[in-house]
Amino acid sequence: MADPARWICRPDLVTLALLLSFFSSSAWAASQQVGAGGSGALPLDVTAERIDYRQDQEVYEAEGSVVIRQGNIRLTADHATIQALPGILTATGQVHLVDSQADLTAERLELNINTEAGIVTHGRLYLPTSNSLLTGRLIQRFSEYHYRVKEGTFTNCDADEGQVPAWRMRFDDVDLTASDTLAFKGAWLCVLDVPVLPLPTLSYPLSSRQTGFLVPFVGYDNRFGLHGQETFYWAINPSQDLFISPSYYSNLGYGSDFEYRYALNRRSRGQWFLSYLQQTELPNVSGVTDTGQDAKKARGVLAGTHTQYLTESLLFRANVNLVSDPNYLQQLSNSGAQRALPSNENNLLATQLLPYGNVYLWGQYLQPLQLGGKDTFQRFPEVGYNLPYTSLLGSPLLFGTESDAVHFYREEGFTLSRVDVVPGLSTDVIDLGHVIGITPQAKFREVYYTRGVQSSEGQHRETFWTGINAASKLTRRFQLDEGVGLLHTLEPSVIYEYVPKTNQSNLPQIDQVDDLPAKNLLTYMVRSRVLEQSATKLFNWLDLMVAQSYHVGAVQTRARDFTPGASPLFGTLTQPLQPATVDIQGRRFSDFWLRAVVGNNLPQFVQAQTASQTFARGAAPMTGLRPSISQYVVVDAFFDPYRNGELTQFNTDLRLQDDTDWYVEVGQRYAREGPRPRRGDIWNPFSLNEVYAPTPEVQFVTAGGGFRTPWGWTIGGKAYYDVKNGRSPEYDILALYQNPCKCWSLGLYYLQFPDRAQYNFMLSLTGIGWTENFGTALMRQLFTPLLWGERGLPWASPGGPYGRPQIGTFTAP
Prior knowledge:
The chain is mostly beta strands. Among the domains are: 1-129, lipopolysaccharide transport protein A fold, CATH 2.60.450; 131-207, Lipopolysaccharide (LPS) transport protein A like domain (lipopolysaccharide transport protein A fold, Sandwich); 694-787. It is 5% helix and 56% strand. It contains four helices and 50 strands. It is elongated, with a radius of gyration of 35 Å. This is LPS-assembly protein LptD.
């Protein structure tokens, strides 16, 4: 024989290689299916320093640097024996088997081709998909999917050969069902190889969606006391799952959370959450007093969404946000935004696309929280038709319309219906010397009410809006370095609008359709942009807009007053039918409106803390889009032209980030005592036709950010401060430690509210799971810009080699 020898095996040994492929892929990864051997199978290549064949025994001996290949499978060893008659393959000496799913090393491997049973001595198996390492003195193979490991270890930590991992499981016996579970017996959880927690029996899922118990968590709240929660996860089928999470609060009560997710098919999916609390004690928070009433009562929240495409052009969507009582979020939520919500919105939408426009059916229910009551108008149903501007018979004349009919219902007080029809005419842009573009427009509005504020008779109002817009755009490009240039655009525009005065004293004012003040206004605006462009970079150096309006006709003399507690002209505090108004000194010139953006202020694809309607669960829905590393400053201000340009409003937002090392965000809000300009209206979003009634001065500052330290800690925080009143409604401090190989992490947080403080911890073991609690959403929101895609985080993290949800995603059938 040649040395080195190369031999292409015959069909029965092809079968041997295929069974070997079954062993390597299905035993450890359980995701690759290999067909039976035959003439169409891939050939088995054997390379060694020496190959001998004993014909009388049908035995092949490969010695020295043995390499066996078939497809993407590669087996190496010092020595290999193939017994064709009994069907036994034996490999010894530095055995190493690699395929697309697993990496196996051992001292000795023996496989019975006929029974598919095998034994591995002192084996070491690495699963790259979950970064898991399993070792054992003896690995027994009973079938294609069933194995048992004796006296071994299991870990997800990265550790070099001979190095002690941060944590691992030591066990006497493990029963392994591929793509299902690991069942431990006689196990210990070891930290730095020191046994810390005995686990007589433990079942651990190998796949990302397995029915079973998740990691429990325990926390403490100085108002609600000790809190414990355990979650049972039920993988109903590949497209549905359910979380059941009983919980207990020592100073509040007990209950359970239920979360159901489904994707019935590619056109139907949704997610629903129910939190039930059996309160045994009154919440120890501000605004709650002991009136002698029984504190024992049931409380809860229901939140969910369902999206259904009935056809390619017919969409149905429902959003539900309900609480058992108006004080639920204010007393129990950890989100400042939720605690300040005036109402919870629930809506139902069905929309059908048509060859021209679309028709829709909409319903809305506002559950009163801080504002509203039984006399709050609910919008159900509303039906409408919209047609965007479309050419009439191919002419330059464009026609469009917006129309709807809505019924306003409420438990107390009268109900009414309203029909609103708004046809409109426009033209294509009329060029004047290719320098100025003129666009004339006109809209006619007919609104009918089944009754008025004081009269039960039907009411109607006819009006129109006409406008003419003149705009120009000047562009110049400056070449900097090779392939890099600056694009400067200057866009001046002027629009004149006219709306006649109408009598709306007997019309209920529920939304902006009902309040249509007279308008004889000229608005002029200049927008200047400087954009750096290259093959790899797009940066906004300046986006500046300056606008002002001038009253050609009469000026405003009365302004609507939305100050809390102001008595409306008609209606109640919970449902004004016509808001209160006050006398003001009208002006022909509005304030100057300036808005400037420097930098790329693309939105962060991070779900806000307010995404969860519950106070007990904080994990927000996950998005697979990496948050942009944005650096920008935004200035939005108003200047009074009658007081030498004095500031009336000044708002800024600043964000700086250095890669994934640190970032900071600062926001500031200032409003001078006096009237507030109304930005835009139903006709034009940029006009400044009105002001609101004077309000007190406002000064507010927000700040947040995070940074990474060289010692594995990421530290961040968020704070709100009312400068005018000298108090902070909320501040949060968070810290997260990740060990060097990121196989475990520890999160700590402290939340301070005006009426209570909360602190807790989160623990993550990579590949096993993490604890989830109050601070999960906030920590994820603050640290995602720095830690996106990394593994070992105590929240669901897309991207990265091991950054995947604790339970995983599911697919529609």
